[in-house]
Amino acid sequence: MSTSPEAVDDATDDATDDATDALKPDDVVVDTVVHQAPRDVANAPKLLEVEHLVKHFAVREVRGLSMLRSSVKAVDDISFVVREGESLGLVGESGCGKSTTSRLITRLEDPTSGAIRFRGQDMALMKEKELRPLRREVQMIFQDPYSSLNPRQTVGTILRTPLDVHGLAKGREKARTKELLELVGLNPEHINRYPSEFSGGQRQRIGIARALAVEPRLIIADEPVSALDVSIQAQVMNLLARLREELNLSFLFIAHDLGVIRHFCDSIAVMYLGKIVEKGWKRDIYSAPQHPYTQALLSAAPDINVVRGVPPRERIRLKGDPPSPIDPPSGCRFRTRCWKAQDICAKVEPPLELKESSGLDQVIACHFPEVKTSLVAEVS
Ligand SMILES: Nc1ncnc2c1ncn2[C@@H]1O[C@H](COP(=O)(O)OP(=O)(O)OP(=O)(O)O)[C@@H](O)[C@H]1O
Ligand code: SF4
Ligand SMILES: [Mg+2]
Fold first, then answer.
1. One domain, residues 65 and 183
2. Are 177 and 159 in contact (CB under 8 A)?
3. Which of 59, 60, 72 to mutate to test the pocket of ligand 1 (most atoms within 8 A of CB)?
4. What pLDDT band is residue 301 in, cutting at 50, 70 and 90?
5. Contact (CB, 8 A) for 151 and 195
6. Residue 261: which pLDDT band, with cuts at 50, 70 and 90?
7. Looking at the structure, do residues 166 and 102 belong to the same domain, yes or no?
């Protein structure tokens, strides 16, 4: 795999960084994201199993003159598996429950119900002491590289803290923090700098190094590039792809559109208003989406349809915003925005199931699924 694109970052933002000299930002375009080698994860052992996971937040709502207790159905009975070495993309609009899912898996939030099994052990009900060894194996990369790093700590301290917490690299902590900086394409001599002395892309690399410090098996990446400039996004995605291959990592990669994860993920789960509506292998989801919501997301992903210069044959524009998760629509939650909705859609919730007639491998929650191949110009 090429080393040059990911070894550089934000050259304009920090001209003093030795590691940023090799390539100018203008040389990088989003569509150059490196393709990983063909991967066979379908038969790998299960690393993470999420089963019937639910998170309802208790809230108070003002209705007229009264204050009522209600609940936000942020995550409402979702199930999925991430296998060893697999990257699963979790995609959906703002507010559909992606970050809540990631916070449940890392146990930053307690689930209302459901199971979260890591290597077969259910983490959902574990106490903090039992969780500690698993916390080392499951690490998060956050969306915002500005707020996720303590501005008063040097990079060396930021990277050393997880080593101390887990008793790792004893006696060689400084050498290990330098190794981590090198691993993510940053200058190891910069360990005494503060986060404010780095550009956005470089800070995200520090966040990645911090996650890798404890040698995790699974990375939960919650929109790790969406706060970055578009030219930097490709470089950070390349870095993640390289690290995934080198360290044999698994990923739950959260994104709000299907464009950014196109080259990165092996499989995709599409979420709408707390539910998974379609799930399958990447190639099937991109080339033959069956749920109307997946089709709308795919049609809206700009770099899929435009960058290659071949216009798609069909575009779908979704109207309005998703309804409130406090009072989601009856039956199919997507029905208030679906152009195919019929009476049954309001009455019966469609189960997430394999539609054998399609001959494809994905599961879909829709009464009237239909394969659409007219949305993408080219699938890689
Ligand atoms: N602590 C909380 N209390 C009440 N409601 C919450 C809480 N945390 C999240 N929510 C609500 O749960 C729903 C899902 O939120 P979540 O942050 O998981 O969405 P998301 O898919 O990550 O959105 P985005 O793409 O904007 O990050 C939203 O309606 C949100 O307002
Ligand atoms: S179940 Fe009905 S409303 Fe829901 S996505 Fe399918 S056709 Fe649309
Ligand atoms: Mg979020």
1. yes
2. yes
3. 72
4. confident
5. yes
6. confident
7. yes
For residue 245, give the CATH number of its domain: 3.40.50.300
Coil, helix or strand for 326? coil
Q: Do 335 and 206 lie in a common domain?
A: no
List residues near ligand 1 (CB under 6 A). Answer: 57, 59, 72, 74, 92, 94-100, 256, 325
Distance 30 CA to ligand 3 centre (A): 22
pLDDT band at residue 318 using 50, 70 and 90 as cut-offs: confident
323 and 258, same structural domain?
Answer: no
Look at the chain and report how many structural domains it folds into. 2
Task: Give the C-alpha separation, 370 to 289, whole Å.
Answer: 8
Residue 42 lies in a domain: no
Residues 184, 302 share a domain: no
Residue 233 pLDDT exceeds 60: yes
Joined together, the tokens standing for residue 344 give 């049954």
What's residue 302's pLDDT? 67
Pairwise CA distance, residues 336 & 321, whole Å: 10
Tokens of 300: 């809206």
Provide the residues around ligand 3 (an ion) whose CB is within 5 A. 99
Residues 177 and 292 in one domain: no
Cα(98) to ligand 3 centroid in Å equals 5
Q: Does 294 lie in the same domain as 232?
A: no
